[in-house]
Design goal:
- There is one protein chain.
- It is built from three helices and seven strands; from the N terminus they run αββαββββαβ.
- With about 150 residues, the chain is of the alpha+beta class.
- The chain has a single domain, classed as Nucleic acid-binding proteins (OB fold (Dihydrolipoamide Acetyltransferase, E2P)).
- Helix 2 links the parallel strand 2 and strand 3.
- It is globular.
- The chain starts with a helix and ends with a strand.
């Protein structure tokens, strides 16, 4: 009987690959309206003050504390800066390249030159408006799910 059991085990279908582990930070996602990153970036004022869910690649993350990350659809051009509600949680320093599902409140912010330069020194891309002032789309996240 042991030989039969071993034979069955050897001929059985290979195990399904385990799903990529999910790292959760902050609150569990509650199912806010899903918004495509491109749509959010093209009309951010339509979503300002609203809680939304966005899923995209992490282009860059703060390498000092993990206190922000940037979601973007491409290597160049503006992205969405994600910060964390009440500075209450952070993401791993090596989050760049992961896929993030983020739930939070949209904000269109004008940044001081000092703040913009600080972000740029950490590797972020901070866009300027037509008036030359630094502006960016931000998402103040209440919860984040990360997948490598």
């Amino acid at each position: 009987m042991n030989a039969l059991l071993i034979a069955l085990m050897l001929t059985a279908a290979p195990e399904a690959k385990a799903a990529d582990p999910v790292l959760v930070r902050g609150e569990k996602l509650k199912g806010a309206e899903a918004v495509d990153l491109q749509k959010l970036m093209s009309t951010p004022t339509d979503f300002e003050g609203k809680t939304v869910t966005v899923e995209a690649k992490v282009r860059k993350a703060c390498e000092k504390k993990g206190c922000w990350m940037e979601l973007a659809g491409a290597d160049k051009g503006p992205g969405v800066r994600v910060t964390f509600k009440d500075y209450g949680f952070f993401v791993p320093l090596d989050s760049a390249g992961s896929t993030a599902k983020v739930e939070g409140v949209v904000k269109v912010a004008e940044l001081s030159e000092a703040r913009a330069k600080h972000y740029e020194a950490e590797g972020a891309i901070v866009p300027r408006g037509k008036d030359g002032k630094y502006r960016e789309v931000q998402l103040v996240a209440s919860g984040v799910e990360l997948r490598k």
